[in-house]
TrEMBL record:
Source organism: Leadbettera azotonutricia (strain ATCC BAA-888 / DSM 13862 / ZAS-9) (Treponema azotonutricium)
SUPFAM superfamilies hit by this protein: NAD(P)-binding Rossmann-fold domains
Protein family according to the UniProt entry: Belongs to the NAD(P)-dependent epimerase/dehydratase family.
Protein name in UniProt: CDP-abequose synthase
Pfam families: Epimerase (PF01370)
Domain NAD-dependent epimerase/dehydratase: 3-221
Gene3D superfamilies documented for this protein: NAD(P)-binding Rossmann-like Domain
InterPro entries reported in the protein's UniProt record: Epimerase_deHydtase, NAD(P)-bd_dom_sf
């Protein structure tokens, strides 16, 4: 299949790309210097006419849209970057797909679109508000062009190698740190899913398009919540070391998400479930 991928240099994208080697892949990037491998053709959006022409020539059957800005700040500089990445780039991409025979647009959301974890869209941050807005932009082009779409909503991803530090990384760092790592009280309950399972779900969707339900949100998690404090205890147990953390040294952010657990109904309908629980995933990471 002809698959166009955005965000291929990010955490999920760079892990997903090697899993799709049997397909005809092109990657849309915003920076032509991004290193994505020798055998992957790059489409850069620095020239709209060329970008659109190359997409039309490639005529993707599937788009996997992973590109986004996940900056959690609300300053003017951050807002501009978020709009450029999440709103403008997505709009240009969809406009460029008008004259293709696109079958499926696989969008990537965020659990931060659901601040209260009650199933209703209610963004916790500006970047997650922009992801909510992106849904309606996609819907507009879906109605205009006629493709099908799904939203994959990953919960708290861990494992692998990420350019951005995550909460697990800070806890791991604290195991050997002389100076205590300052954290919040650690009461947030999150749904941790290993990058291995995240990538496998994207591959599953691509290879089982006939099983997908159009316009469905697939909440990608385990359905099990673990507090950050509980996570630290588990990491201590696996490593046989005490975490050097100063709990409560940092205040919670405004609208900090205190509970985020994936509802599993949509995954169950696909007969798909993650293969690793949290302890198995952490042991895989430490092995």
């Amino acid at each position: 299949m002809r698959i166009l991928i955005t965000g291929a240099t990010g955490f999920v994208g760079s892990t997903l790309l090697p899993k799709l080697s049997k397909h005809n892949i092109k990657v849309a990037v915003r920076n032509v210097s991004d290193d994505i491998g020798r055998n992957i053709q790059i489409l850069a959006d620095d020239n709209f006419d060329r970008f659109k022409r190359e997409i039309e020539l490639f005529a993707p059957e599937i788009v996997v849209h992973l590109a986004s800005s996940m900056i959690k700040n609300d300053d003017v500089y951050s807002i501009k970057n978020i709009i450029d990445s999440n709103i403008l780039f997505t709009s240009i991409l969809l406009e460029s797909l008008k004259n293709t025979s696109l079958r499926y647009f696989i969008n990537t959301g965020t659990f931060a679109e659901y601040y209260l974890n009650d199933g209703d869209l209610n963004p916790a941050y500006y970047y997650s508000a922009s992801k909510c807005a992106t849904r309606y932009i996609i819907k507009y082009f879906k109605n205009l062009i006629g493709f099908k779409t799904i939203n994959i909503i990953p919960y708290t991803i861990y494992g692998g190698v990420s350019k951005t530090k995550k909460v697990i990384d800070y806890i791991i760092d604290s195991l050997d740190s002389i100076v205590p790592i300052e954290m919040t009280k650690g009461e947030q309950i999150l749904d941790f899913i290993h990058i291995y399972d995240v990538v496998n779900f994207y591959v599953y969707c691509i290879e089982n398009l006939n099983k997908l339900t159009d316009s469905t949100d697939y909440h990608l998690g385990t359905g099990i919540g673990t507090s950050i404090r509980e996570l630290a205890v588990l990491i201590e147990h696996i490593n046989g070391k005490k975490a050097n953390i100063l709990w409560g040294a940092k205040q919670y952010r405004d609208l900090d998400i205190m509970k985020s657990i994936a509802p599993m109904d949509s995954l169950k309908k696909l007969d798909w479930s993650p293969s690793l629980n949290l302890e198995q995933g952490l042991r895989k990471q430490f092995s």
